[in-house]
Design goal:
Layout: H1 34-60, E1 66-69, E2 73-74, H2 87-100, E3 106-112, E4 115-120, H3 122-134, E5 146-151, H4 157-171, H5 176-188, H6 195-202, H7 208-224, H8 236-248, H9 252-263, H10 268-282, E6 297-300, E7 303-309, E8 318-322, H11 328-340
Parallel strand pairs: 2-4, 3-5
Antiparallel strand pairs: 1-5, 3-4, 6-7, 7-8
Helix pairs in contact: 2-3, 5-6, 5-7, 7-8, 8-10, 9-10
């Protein structure tokens, strides 16, 4: 009987060279076709491109925090809405930053390569710069050499001013004089065509009554900006009373400016006391009326205003205007003003 010959299985690596690559599945001789390599490279490139686009979008949308050196930020890029800051409040902010670090980022926009204009966060930036200077030579100084910032891309200067004002209105309200000042400055810078438009845009979320009050302080700003030493501390009620008095007597502004310059008050309290005394002397006497009628104030020559019943608890109010100054032209102006305020 013939002896059977044992057959060996075929060798799959017979035609492979010593430097041939192994297959992804561990099978020798199984090399991926070129088309699969091209598809894999394209998929990887597409994924990287998608990640880069998402990061760019996140940065543009303000979802990407930057840590910027303090000297790369220009806080004068916009006219600031704050005239100054309370030294005690700034010291408290510095103490908080030193103890807990910066919790809220500032907002900036890139104005040149590696240069950023400040939109909001002036107090935080000022406090960080003060800390960095005060800690010169100490190991802790490096903690305050940079600032956390959210990059923004406002489409127009108008958008940048609105963002600055809104941020301060939310975090720490401005005084009425400061609100009026930034509206006037924005017009001077050519951001808005008129002060009326500036008030509407900058304080769009405010009530009409509030915008009207800011408009009243605009008159004080134009007449007394160079004479008030503590303008940001001017109370609402005193400022509105001054505005009414200036409407009734346009020459009063010059007299008040002269008194302020001569007195040179050293504190907000002294300045306000001087304004109140001047206002009291300038107030027109109440006009006598027929028996039984309410007394009125001559708000300007020839026009007397009587408040007979202020609105309260749902009840309607009632005011009356009388006088020879109520010409058809004046009534038309009054009607237009009431429709806009």
């Amino acid at each position: 009987m013939a002896k059977r010959r044992r057959l060996n299985p075929p060798r799959l690596d017979y035609f492979r060279g010593p430097d041939a690559e192994s297959s992804p599945l561990g099978l020798p001789g199984s090399v991926p076709p070129p088309i699969s390599r091209i598809a894999g490279d394209a998929a990887a490139a597409g994924a990287l491109r998608e990640v880069a686009e998402e990061m760019t979008a996140a940065r543009n949308d303000g979802r990407f925090l930057l840590r910027l050196p303090l000297d790369r930020i220009d806080e004068t890029w916009l006219v600031r809405d704050r005239i100054g800051t309370d030294p005690e409040a700034l010291e408290n902010l510095m103490s908080s930053l030193r103890s807990h670090g910066q919790r809220n980022p500032i907002e900036v926009t890139e104005i040149a390569p590696d240069r950023y204009g400040l939109i909001s966060g002036w107090r935080r930036l000022t406090a960080l710069r003060r800390l960095h200077a005060d800690l010169a030579g100490e190991p802790e100084q490096a903690r305050f050499a940079t600032v956390l910032a959210l990059p923004r891309q406002p489409e127009t200067a108008e958008d940048a001013y609105v963002a600055m004002v809104e941020e301060n209105e939310i975090r720490l309200g401005l005084s009425y004089f400061e609100r009026a000042r930034i509206a006037a400055k924005a017009v001077e810078a050519g951001v808005f065509e008129t002060e009326k438009l500036a008030l509407r845009k900058l304080y769009a979320s405010a009530s009409r009554a509030k915008r009207s009050k800011i408009g009243s302080f605009l008159r004080l700003y134009h007449l007394l900006q160079d004479h008030l030493r503590f303008a940001s501390a001017l109370p609402e009620r005193l400022g509105l009373a001054l505005a009414r008095a200036l409407d009734a007597d346009p020459a009063l502004g010059g007299r008040i400016a002269g008194l302020l310059d001569k007195a040179a008050p050293d504190s907000a309290e002294q300045e306000q006391a001087l304004l109140q005394a001047t206002l009291k002397k300038a107030s027109p006497p109440q006009t006598k009326t027929r028996q039984g009628a309410a007394a009125g104030d001559e708000i300007r020559p020839g026009i007397v205003l009587r408040t007979q019943r202020p609105a309260s608890d749902g009840a309607e109010g009632k005011v009356t205007l009388t006088g020879k100054g109520l010409t058809p032209e004046m009534l038309e102006k009054l009607r237009h003003w009431l429709s806009e305020c």
